[in-house]
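Hi W.,

Here's what went into the run:
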Amino acid sequence: MSEQEIFELVSNWRSEVRRGALQLYLLSLIAKNQEMYGYEIVKELKQRTGYILDIKEGVLYPILRRLTKDELLEGTWMTPTNGVSLTKPRKYYRLTKRGYHVLDEMAQYWSNLTHEMDLILNVEDE
Amino acid sequence: MSKEVEREINNYLMRVASYLGSEEMIDEITMELRTHIEDRAQELAGMSEVRVEDVWRAIHELGEPREIAQGYLQPDKPSKIFISDELYPYFLRAIGVLSVVIVLIGLVGWMIRGYRAEDLSRTIFEIELAIPAVIGIMFVVFVYLSREGYTIETLRWKIETFFDARKVDLQGLGEEFRTRQEKKREEKRLRQAWKQQREEEHRSERERQREEARWQKAAERQRKWDHSIRPGQLGELFGAFLAIAVTLFFLYPM
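Here's what came out:
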């Protein structure tokens, strides 16, 4: 197997993992902040994960829409009133009841998975 | 925000919108993307006014319009036996409806042929052949649509844009026809106006010539009058001649 083929395989695997992780990450992030708008999420995502969840910003919005379609999130257009100069309406996302439930399930699964992974990888290392 | 900046954002959003489906969706999506671009551009510009360069960078970071639109339009879940989850219910509905139609056509055909019992088994055999054939064709069509990433929204949009394009073509033809008619009318009007103007010019030329002729005649009359001996002049001449004759008579009496 050539280096190119290995690189492609790993890239595909990474993008699959990233796709799954991103949904969980977004739900957790919004749940933690209670409600967030698109650009706020992008900034937070960049600051916290850097290149680990390296995604094009434009990819995020379709995911948010899909999560809204699946009734895990609800989006509301609001004009922030806490600032003096902020008058532009923004779409704020927050988790629905169903979203919180799914987040719990996903987080539980992720925790088990990473635990198992750590064990396996550590065994491999030893 | 300057007009140039506004134009750049609008251009980008229009390109995203051109790849998207229903109108409600477009409005919602472009509005959200606009706030993102404006926020990012403002952040890049800091306290100063947003420049076009800031917008370009914000747009570049956001991604290609086609990619963004694809993100919105791609099927939600992986395919179900080669047909996407979204299209699968429509596939089932299509083969259901077509099967009923085939059975009805078969029965009507049997009735037209004369309700004969020996034809019934043949009709059933034909129906049994036709239904799997239709299912096969529908399966191929739906697999193709799923592989191409079509959703009901994009299909509807494709169909609508196809008919809209035809409508636009027809409107364009109508518009062209109307323009041509208007052009013809305008040309006719111009020709008439030009003709009228020529006639007026001719008329005024004729009048001018008539007037000139009148003046010439008058001048001629005047000239003749000036050169002719008028009755008054004859009297004056006669008077002068008489005065001379009387004077001579008194000076040289006979």
